[in-house]
From TrEMBL:
It comes from Streptomyces vietnamensis. The keyword Iron applies. Keywords: Dioxygenase, Iron, Metal-binding, Oxidoreductase. The keyword Iron-sulfur does not apply. It holds the Pfam family TauD. One of its GO terms (molecular function) is 2-oxoglutarate-dependent dioxygenase activity. Its cofactor is Fe(2+). Residues 17-273 form the TauD/TfdA-like domain. This is Alpha-ketoglutarate-dependent sulfate ester dioxygenase. One of its GO terms (cellular component) is cytoplasm.
């Protein structure tokens, strides 16, 4: 179906980030100029929302994702359709109620995530996004200077049970067997220079284990300090899902949080992630994969962060 006759409109929903894009029927057949408009809105507003995309299935969702870049599989969790569709289901234990950017435990973590609402609970289950570029920009200059020089180690092997006190033993077992089946450690700069906008963004979130070179207590204090600026309510936008909604976010300039307040009601979303590149800090140093030696191939397609090995070796300066 052509969208050529419908004007695309972009309406802000938050002061710091978020906009609703109307007049688009998402799919793999969108004209290049519409894709360019969506991409520009995405880079400017960090997260963009589309209502009424009920026509999308796994295949069309992925086909649309390909217009933004190369879809990538999750490094450890099997897809929902044997391809690139990642399940975010309440019955899967997948309640992402921690602030994070997706898959930051690998170097070349995804640039974009495209999330589609399939089953939405009668209440609750909203998602929050925070702008990590404005979080940096609004920091007092001495804190910007401090952050500029820091690096942090991210891992998928975090203390899941401690973060989710009510977690069921089977969910914990599943986390260990699936999500953390391969344990990744990646060191990123705390301040990433955005490869498309040039903005400086804070690269933190719940996959961070520690600030490199600091003791546990100092590391925790600094992480809480910077993460607190990201999570300030004024720096966030909140989305109340309807079935058929699609949210696309710039995973290099945002964190998000799935609010776990819909009790036992079913909530089912599907995510397609688009390949990113290896972050670079303000000093020009790239992120480095510390473990394992390379990102293993998933059962299907290419893994998020797969470009790691070559990119890292390419990016490693002689000095
Ligand atoms: Fe996420």
């Amino acid at each position: 179906m052509s969208t050529a006759t419908t004007p695309v409109t972009v309406q802000k929903v938050g002061g710091r980030l978020g906009a609703v894009v109307s007049g688009v029927r998402l799919g793999g057949d969108l004209p290049a100029e519409t894709v360019a408009e969506i991409r520009a809105a995405l880079l400017q507003h960090k997260v963009v929302f589309f209502r009424g995309q009920d026509h999308l299935d796994e295949e069309a969702h992925e086909a649309f994702g390909r217009l933004l870049g190369t879809p990538v599989a999750h490094p450890t969790v099997p897809s929902a359709d044997g391809r690139y569709s990642f399940p975010i289901d309440s019955d899967y234990g997948g309640r992402a109620n921690q602030w994070h950017s997706d898959v930051t435990f690998v170097p070349a973590y995804p640039a974009f995530s495209v999330l589609r609402a399939v089953v939405i609970p009668p209440y609750g289950g909203n998602t929050l996004w925070a702008n990590t570029a404005t979080a940096y920009e609004k920091l007092p200059e001495p804190l910007q200077a401090l952050a500029d020089g820091l690096r942090a180690v991210h891992s998928n092997d975090y203390d899941y049970a401690a973060l989710r006190p009510g977690v069921l033993p089977e969910q914990l077992a599943r986390f260990r067997e699936v999500f953390a089946s391969t344990k990744f450690l990646t060191e990123h700069p705390v301040v990433r220079v955005h490869p498309e906008t040039g903005e400086r963004t804070l690269l933190l979130g719940n996959f961070v284990q520690r600030i490199s070179g600091l003791t546990g207590a100092d590391s925790r204090a600094l992480l809480d300090l910077f993460q607190g600026h990201i999570e300030r309510p004024e720096n966030t936008v909140r989305w109340q899902w309807q079935v058929g909604d699609v949210a696309i976010w710039d995973n290099r300039a945002t964190q998000h949080y799935g609010v776990d307040d819909s009790d036992d009601h079913e909530r089912k979303l599907r995510r397609v992630t688009i390949d990113g590149d290896v972050p670079v800090g303000v000093d020009g140093r790239s992120s480095v994969l510390l473990a394992p030696e390379s990102v293993p191939d998933p059962a299907f397609g290419i893994a998020s962060g797969d470009s790691t090995t070559s990119e890292t070796s390419k990016a490693s300066p002689a000095a």
